[in-house]
Amino acid sequence: MDSEELKKVAQRARFMREAGFALLLASLLLALIIFLPILGVAKKMPLAPAATATSTASGSFADVPIEAKAAIVYDLATGKTLYAKNADAQLPLASLTKLLTMYAAFKELSPTTPIAIPEDATHLSAPHAFKAGQTFRLEDLARITLTASLNDGATAIAEATAAHEERSLSTMLASVATGLGLAQTYAVNGSGLDVNTAVSGGYGSAHDLARLAGALVAEAPSVTLATTRNTAQAVSLEGTAFNVKNTDPIVDNVPNLLLSKTGYTDLAGGNLALVFDAGIGHPIAVVVLGSTEKARFTDGAALVDATLAHFAGVTSL
Prior knowledge:
By secondary structure, the chain is an alpha+beta fold. The chain has 8 helices and 12 strands.
């Protein structure tokens, strides 16, 4: 074989090696393209965040009729949303604002802190029950204030908490909302009363309020438990006894209830927040925003029934 033929053989051999290497490289790239996304998904699946407030209505919740503009069923034990309708929409809270007021107070003050009813609180719209200067222990005033949704009691507690912190009332409430990570929640007063025909006393989302209600149950369980009964009682430090009626007519119909709070104003419509135990140590929050004065209760009851059906593994009870 002469030198020219040897050159041709060498060139063909080099070409075959290069082609083989290129084919091997292409195969490796193809394998990476095919298998890396699969591996990536497998790695991410265990780290997926807990479900948040998204529109969902399946299983036992699929046919639940809800008149409210927004609603949520939130599993406080797992951080998962079981049902949601516009659950991140920011809406007027009406007296659900009082949940924020009470949480702020119990985070900052002792349950035995004396709270005096200020003069300005006695001029607020109903429901109200007190005279200026009457004084209560915080836990006693909170108990009847939440149960009967008393605007004068909520204002007294909010003003006392803000004064203790040496902050404005709105700044104090904003700080509490931020501390809980309630991105859609803020309040301009402690009662939730509409400021005027265009501005509500407090705003928030169903998702935020579910988490807030759960936090208050954990912070002040003896107070929230009072809201699950038809009446609540308290005695002022001056010796005056008060007996108030619950604003929620369905407290006897919700099993293992831990908290009930109603809200209604012209701007907000009908609101309702419930926390109940679906099992031992398994609290569930149900929040309804922007319903009607009557339908908030049928909305809430329907969501409670659907939740119980969900945990029972049936479509409906």
